[in-house]
Amino acid sequence: MTSSPYLITRLSLMMFLQFFVWGAFFVTLGSYLLEVFKNETGINTIIGLAFATHNWAALLAPLFVGLLADRFINAERLNAVCQLLGGGLLWYAASVTDPGVFIWTLFAYFMLYMPTLALANTIAFSNIDDPDKQFPAIRVWGTVGWILAGFIVAQTVLGFVNIPILQVLTGVDNAQITNIPLKMAAILSVIYGLYSLTLPATPPKAKGEAFSVSKALGMDALMLMKERNFFIFALSSFLISIPLAFYYARTNDFVAAMAFGNQSASFMAIGQMSEVLFMLLVPFFIVRFGVKWMLMVAMAAWALRYLVFASFPESAALLIFGIALHGICYDFFFVTGQLYVDRKAPVAIRASAQGLFALLTYGAGMLVGNYILGWWGDSMALDGSTQAGWLQGAFSFWIMPAVLAAIILLFFSLTFKRETVSTGASV
User: pLDDT band for position 67 (50/70/90)?
Assistant: First the structure.
C-alpha cells in the first residue's frame, strides 16, 4: 500500500471534520447552558452533569468499538452511521429547553461520538505506510479544526480579524449563548458522515474472535498495578483529571464574563495553539528531564492556572496566560503519560494499557471532576452568567481545583521514584 499525498489529504480532512464538529459546540456549551437554563435551580450542577455525559461515554465507548468496529462493521461505515445519527441528535438538542431531556440527549450523542475518536484513528492507521511519520501530520489537522471552529463561533481571530460568517447567515452577534453552535455542529456532523462513506474501506481486524469486556476496558493491564511506580502513576493520573474537568466546563463562560465577551471562544483556541507548540517540544524535554519531571511540571501548571484564575480574574493578560498553559498541562501530562505507558507495558498488553490510561483520565477522573464542580458551584451559589457573579465567586470556585492539583503534585513528587526503563531513558 502506498500512502499518496491525495490519500493523506483525505485522511487529514477526515481528522479536521472529526474535531471541528466537537469543538464547534463543546467549548461554548457552558455559556449556552447558563443562558438557556438560567431560570433553573442548581444551574452549576446542570452544567456539571451535561459535561459528565462525554465522560460516561468515554467509559462505555471501548465496549461499543470493540464489539462492532473490531468484529462486524467496517470502521468507515460505522463512523458514518455514528456521525449521521449524531448530527440528528445535536439538531434535536438545539431545541430542548428541559435540562433533564437535554442531558440525556447529550449523553446519547456522545455515546455515538466518542467511539468515532477511535474509529478515525483506526481508519488513518490502517491506510498509511509509516504511522510514526505520517499520523502526526494527519492528526494535527484535528487541532486545526477545533481552533477554526472556535474562531467561527466567536466570529473573530483573537479580536484582530473578523469572521462574520454566522452573523451574515443568522443575524446573531453573540452566537455562543445561542443554539447556533449546536446546529452548526449538527450540519457538519452530517456532512462528515456522508464524507466518511467515501473513505478507504477499513474492514474489522478481529472478525471471528471472541469479545472480551475486560480487554475492551483495558483490564488486562491491571497486572501493571503490581508495580509500585505504575500504581502511583495510575492513581495520580486519575486524581489530576478531577481538577482538569473544571477547565473544560467553566473556563469559557468565566473568561467571557470577565474579559472577552462574545469573542471568548476565539481566545479559548489559544489553548489548542499552545498544545500544538508544546506537542513538538515533548520529545526534546522528555529526553533531558525524564517522565517524572515532565508530569510534575504539568501538574504544577494545572495548579498555577487555577491560582491565576482565582487571584486575577480581572486581568485579561493573565487570563490569556492561564489559557496558554493548556499546552503544558495537556501535552506534558497526557502525551508524556502515553509514552510512559508504552514503555512500561509489554507488547501484548500495550493497547489495553493505553485504554486503561484513557479510562482513568478522560473517563473516571473527569467524570468525578464534573460532578464535583457542579456541587461546588451550587454550594457556593456561583452565578456564572454575569461578571459580578464571577467577581464574587472566582476565588472560591477556582481555588478548589488549584488546591487539589497542588496536593496531587506533592503526593506524586514524594512517592514516584525515578527509574530507568528498558530503553535506557530515565523516567
Answer: low
Q: What does the block give as the cell for 234?
A: 495510575
The model's pLDDT over 101-122, given as tens digits with 9 standing for 90+, comes to 999 999 999 999 998 988 888 8
**Residue 187 shares a structural domain with residue 223:** no
226 belongs to a structural domain: yes
Of 350, 306, 311, 340, give the one whose Cα is nearest residue 325: 306
pTM of the full structure: 0.87
| Residue 337 covered by a domain | yes
What is the mean predicted confidence (pLDDT) over 35-57? 94
Q: Do 299 and 246 touch, CB atoms closer than 8 A?
A: no
Burial (CB count <10 Å: 0-12, 13-18, 19+), residue 81: middle
Q: Is the dihedral of CA 287, 293, 362, 195 positive or negative?
A: negative
CA dist 62 and 44 (Å) reads 29
Among 159, 175, 203, residue at a domain's last position: 203
Domain C-terminal end among 159, 181, 203: 203
Tell whether 228 and 349 lie within a shared domain: yes
Q: Is the dihedral of CA 297, 302, 308, 311 positive or negative?
A: negative
